[in-house]
Write a structure and sequence with these properties.
Number of strands: 19
CATH superfamily of the largest domain: FAD/NAD(P)-binding domain
Number of domains: 2
CATH architecture of the largest domain: 3-Layer(bba) Sandwich
Structural class: alpha+beta
Bound molecules: glycine
Radius of gyration: 21 Å
Strand content: 25-35%
Order of helices and strands: EHEHEHEHEHEEHEEEEEEEEEHEEEH
Distance between the termini: 31 Å
Shape: elongated
Number of helices: 8
């Protein structure tokens, strides 16, 4: 991964509001991205508010928390690897900073990923995938089924083989969301539990050149900088000029959580499997849960779970690790990933003055949170974004 930064370096601050009439920065959206940007901005001494009626309850709530730049990407997303790898390198320092700010342990794990094939066609496909990955960051050698089972004894004896991606990390998504809210509070940032219905950009008309944010229920807050971190829901906010809100489409994911005994974990690391051409991931948590995900369905804003999708996930999970059938079915949920036309995020300034965006993180909200926070906070501090984020501007979609 070369000379990428080991940690998020903070831009210089502080710059408290001069007149007390509003915030330096108002972030619209309180998922992992909005909370990360808000907390990171608050660490520079800026006054910050993050607005969301239900912080952390959107797609971030469903996420599996895998930090996996290569094993999570499709071949068509190879252009995103440098950004993803950079953000992976930032995660240990990001997690340590969260702990320093009272966020506690976010369950950062370094066990890596084991990618396995259920059938012969799956084996051929994964061997090709492994060869393609080697061009970026060489994964482990191809392993036979027996070697895979020595690493993960719960795998079905029929598993055809696979390979390790030792550098992948994982975090507990819900621990991260709680940590970000605590850390934001530690840094005197505010969480406004209200929906933003519209924004009114300064345009020279509002006193002090501030933007005004209209909340559900009629209250308003004012902001020197506005950051749009609205996930798949940005289309519902009025007053956002064309060119400020990137083209984001919803990609639904169904995900299941199984509860096992924390004293007898079924798996020791993330297992990703291809089963008859379908993909499933199994993410073990320290509390005994195994997160089983996820479907990928384009079209519509529905967040109820589809029975057939849950059936396929459980079928594929149990095909690869039969013992999972004995765990308790703890939760089924569906959320919307925010995807852009090239599946990459949109970060940084927009065509409107003092309006920044942090959107379209698709499958990688948790992975990309540290580099997003660094890029967007650099923007609001009038500093250079990390060079690796240079290609993430809103302008690339015309
Ligand atoms: N990053 C996991 C998923 O999108 O399903």
């Amino acid at each position: 991964m070369g000379n990428l930064p080991e940690q998020n370096e903070l831009p210089s601050g502080p710059a408290r509001p001069v007149d007390g009439s509003g915030y330096d920065v108002v972030v619209v959206g309180g998922g992992v991205i909005g909370l990360s940007v808000g907390w990171w901005a608050a660490r520079t001494g800026r006054s910050v508010a993050v607005c969301d009626p239900a912080p952390g309850q959107g797609s971030s709530w469903a996420a599996a928390g895998m930090l996996a730049p290569l094993s999570e990407a499709s071949p068509a997303e190879a252009h995103l690897y440098p950004l993803a790898a950079d953000s992976l390198r930032r995660w240990p320092a990001f997690a340590a900073a969260l702990a320093d700010d009272g966020g506690g342990d976010v369950g950062l794990r370094t066990d890596g990923t084991l990618v396995v094939a259920a059938g012969d066609d799956d084996r051929r496909a994964l061997a090709e995938l492994r060869d393609r990955m080697a061009a970026f960051d060489p994964p482990g050698d191809w392993l036979g089924g027996g070697a895979c089972r020595r690493l993960e004894p719960a795998l079905h004896p029929g598993v055809r083989g696979g390979f390790e991606v030792a550098g992948d990390l994982q975090v507990d998504n819900r621990a991260v969301l709680a940590a970000l809210q605590s850390a934001l509070a530690t840094r005197q940032g505010e969480l406004i539990r209200s929906a933003v219905v519209a924004v009114e950009l300064a345009g020279g008309r509002l006193p002090g050149g501030r933007h005004r944010v209209h909340l559900d229920g009629g209250a308003t807050v004012e902001a020197g900088w506005l950051v749009l971190a609205t996930g798949a829901g940005g289309h519902t906010i009025g007053g956002v000029p064309a060119g400020c809100q990137p083209p984001v489409r919803p990609v639904r994911g169904d995900i299941v959580r199984l509860q096992g005994d924390p004293g007898e974990p079924v798996l020791g690391r993330v297992v990703r499997a291809q089963v008859d051409g379908r993909h499933v991931y199994l993410v073990p948590r320290r509390n005994g849960q195994v997160v089983v995900g996820a479907t990928s369905e384009e079209g519509g804003y529905r967040t109820t779970s589809r029975a057939g999708a849950v059936h396929d996930l459980l079928h594929d999970a149990v095909t690869v690790v039969p013992e999972l059938a004995e765990l308790e079915l703890a939760e089924v949920c569906a959320r919307l990933r925010p995807a852009t036309p090239d599946n990459g995020p949109v970060l940084g300034p927009t065509a409107a003055e003092r309006v920044a965006v942090a959107a379209g993180h698709y499958r990688n909200g948790f992975l990309l949170a540290p580099v997003t926070a660094a890029a967007v906070v650099a923007t609001v501090c009038n500093e250079e974004m990390p060079a690796v984020a240079a290609g993430c501007g809103a302008g690339r979609f015309g």
